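Ops channel
N.P.: pipeline sanity check, posting one input/output pair.
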């Protein structure tokens, strides 16, 4: 049974797009039906492969943004300038289209409901995708584990999952903080990147011993991980997932 499941994860399968939800002007969520989907853990990702009529193939990895329920999975993709895959997924793909996927992949950058201790989520841009999967898994499981999300975005129009985040923030166990780096909404006094002051003000303290999950572009992830360690957090409890500018 385990070998069959492993073989399925390592094999390319055909996914069918059953629904599409716009998130921002440059990002959208694709709902996929994958036959015999064995489920995934919050934080895992899939490999996506596109094949052109002339046989040329391009593949990229995208985090699953949905929780483990049901027979469908969701990928939330943001356009990467000059990318080979993300422009097609965001601007071209329509309901009924098919492409290949493989996975789920990853076992370190995951959160499970039975996991003990507070959860600190810090995301930049589309790095919110696997963190949203964790937030949804948290809500679905009825977990009372305290969770804090710090989400760095350029401007209000860049917020992915804006409606979902407002709903999740209403939970007594989830705290959501948006950090705007270019343009902030009226009444928001601060515009700038995540720094030591933001970590000190909004993140759990080292005494709380949270498990921290940081996802976003490589420079963002490295900076935030360093800030957490400099603030006294145990490096072994800081988990990172990063993507480079050539992805997509």
């Amino acid at each position: 049974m385990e070998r069959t499941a492993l073989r399925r994860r390592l094999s390319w399968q055909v996914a069918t797009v059953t629904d599409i939800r716009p998130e921002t002007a440059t990002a959208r969520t694709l709902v996929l039906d994958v036959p015999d989907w064995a489920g995934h853990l919050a934080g895992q990702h899939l490999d996506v492969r596109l094949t052109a009529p002339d046989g040329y193939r391009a593949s990229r990895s995208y985090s699953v943004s949905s929780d483990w329920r049901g027979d469908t999975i969701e990928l939330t993709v943001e356009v990467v300038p000059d990318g080979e895959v993300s422009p097609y997924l965001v601007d071209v793909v329509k309901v009924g289209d098919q492409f290949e996927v493989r996975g789920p992949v990853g076992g370190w950058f995951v959160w499970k409901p039975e996991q003990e201790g507070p959860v600190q989520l810090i995301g930049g841009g589309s790095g919110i995708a696997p963190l949203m999967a964790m937030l949804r898994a948290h809500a679905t499981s009825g977990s009372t584990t305290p969770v804090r999300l710090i989400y760095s975005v350029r401007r209000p129009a860049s917020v992915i999952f804006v409606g979902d985040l407002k709903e999740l923030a209403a939970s007594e166990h989830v705290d959501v903080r948006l950090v705007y780096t270019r343009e902030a909404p009226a009444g928001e006094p601060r515009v700038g990147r995540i720094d030591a002051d933001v970590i000190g003000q909004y993140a759990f303290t080292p005494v709380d011993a949270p498990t921290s999950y940081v996802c976003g572009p490589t420079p963002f992830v490295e900076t935030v991980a360093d800030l957490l360690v400099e603030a006294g957090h145990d490096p072994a409890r800081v988990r990172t997932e990063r993507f480079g500018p050539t992805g997509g």
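N.P.: looks fine end to end. The domain at 2-104 is CATH 2.40.30.10 (Elongation Factor Tu (Ef-tu); domain 3).
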